[in-house]
Amino acid sequence: MKFNSLFLSLFATLSVCLVSCNGDDDNTSSSWACGDTITDVDGHVYTTVAIGSECWIQQNLNTASYNDGTPIPNVTDQTDWTQLETGAWAYYDNDVVTGQLHGKLYNWYAIENGNLCPEGWHVPTAGEFNQLVSSLGGSAIAGEKMKTTMGWNNSPDNATNSSGLSVLPSGNRDYFGGFLGLGENVWFFTASEDTNDPERALWLKVTSESNTDTGTALKKDGLPCRCVLD
Question: DSSP code of 177?
């Protein structure tokens, strides 16, 4: 009888854990709240922060798979990168150690199918980035509120990270396959295409200054990505 009681007690405890302990695996669970972690399909865990009316991940995306499990190719060769018209990623300087901190650089083709972020999340549009900047006081000062206080070449000048977005100077990979900007700036791809040029997409740029900037990059460029809650 004591054995049966013990077994039933352990079974009940395990059942509760199976329901509650897997909460982070369901990034759209009704029990989930902004500030909790989310996990991508490759098992990378991201912390989240509420800014204005939006919920953002606090790290650059680092998945090597779309959220349906389809692999995204890692293209290291410079010439091969210039010829891509499908989704791909690379670490800055093809360096895994750098990638552990800064995440992956994706071309825009990895974004266009809408499956790059974990389920329930998406790469923000230009409008959502504009809303973020506006909630931080506008483009003249938003950069200072986004940036980490370490890692920038001029750190800690012009960086408070008061927003909690924890933006790092992750640089980018240009159309020709070269790497530039580490320690100095970061350009984030948006999900918005340039309506005037089908080969380009919009980005948000954060530099060593206090401001943010917007512009366009070739879809063949490799930029970091963030995710925002659907």
Answer: S
